[in-house]
Every structure is written in C-alpha cells, then in structure tokens.
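Quick sanity check, Carbonic anhydrase 2:
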Amino acid sequence: MNVAEVFKNNEKWIAEKLSINPDYFSDLAKGQSPEFLYIGCSDSRVTAEDLMGIQPGQAFVHRNIANLVNNVDLSVMTVLNYAVRHLKVNHIVVCGHYNCGGVKAAMQPADLGILNPWLRNIRDVYRLHKDELNAIADEDARYNRLVELNVQEQCVNLLKTAAVQEAIVHRGLTVQGWVFDIRTGRLIDLKIDFEKILKDITEIYKLY
C-alpha cells in the first residue's frame, strides 16, 4: 500500500457509496448525531466502525494507546465532554483488545522513555488488582486479565466525571466495557456492574 493507492481507493469508495445512495455525502454533510462515543486503542488492527459493523456518523471515536481515560489528558476529556454534552450520545464504550502492545509494555520492568508516564496509568491498574493478577500463573492469561481490568478502570474513570454523572441522571446514559478478541474477531461484553461501582465511589467522586 502506498499513498497513490490510498487516493485510488478513495475514488472507488466514493463511487461505491454514490451507487447505493446518490445523496450519501450530502446527507453526511448535514451534521452528525451519533449514538455512541467509542474510546478504543490506537492499534492499527482495531477499527471501531469495522468491528461494530456501523457506518460513518454512528459513533464519535477517540483512540489512544491502550484506550485510557486519563483525567489530565486534554484530548480525551475534550472528546468526552463534547460527545456527552453537545452531541448527547447515549452510550459510551471503552473497548480494549487482547494482544494490546501498550498493556504488554506496561507489564515489563523497563524504562520506555516518553511512554513511561502514559503506561504508568496501566501499571496503576495492575497495582490496584495485584493480588488477583499475581495469582494467575499463566503469563498470557494474566496479560488478558489485565486488558480486561484496564477497561474496567477506564470505565470507572468515566464515572468519576461530572459530564457522565449528569447524563446518567438526566437521560440514562450508559457506560459499556468491552474487549475485542483480535484472534477471533469477537466483541466481548465484560458485563461490569457499573451501578455497584458508581454506588461505591459516589461518596468520594460525586460531582453532580
């Protein structure tokens, strides 16, 4: 794949869309009203629209290394607030994936330079769940479980924000924690008990 091929593919894509719906692009240009905010990993193998089977306009998307919701990251916080308060999405999805390079790097005792402060967020997840993770003898299974727990903790980070708390109260916004199994193509709902988590953290993190 080279740059010239990208532009050829773009022309083919335009022709395909117009052959199905001559108004496709004029309809897109009218605005967006996505149902989902999708927060996923930047991994080139994991694309929101493909794995969810949705079309442009149906999900507002933010991606970063290891799908983190870091409260001091202006990028993710800006996306979150815009999606919730202006676009009024009904569902926020944090989607991790097995074989995540960011999570694997965080498990290694190595100095990774500029990545250190970013990966520390994942190491903090490990610290919070150290007893459970250290009890898993198989390294791959421990790695997979950390991927899942990282998704859970990023969902908790969402629940700590005023915008999400307000939207849950006023219009029933839901938070979803998923993992994409890159080996099978399946999306897995982690079925996290967010009602219990919200109840447990309300005393400290209630903002709305």
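Posting the structure with no commentary besides this: The chain has a mean pLDDT of 95.
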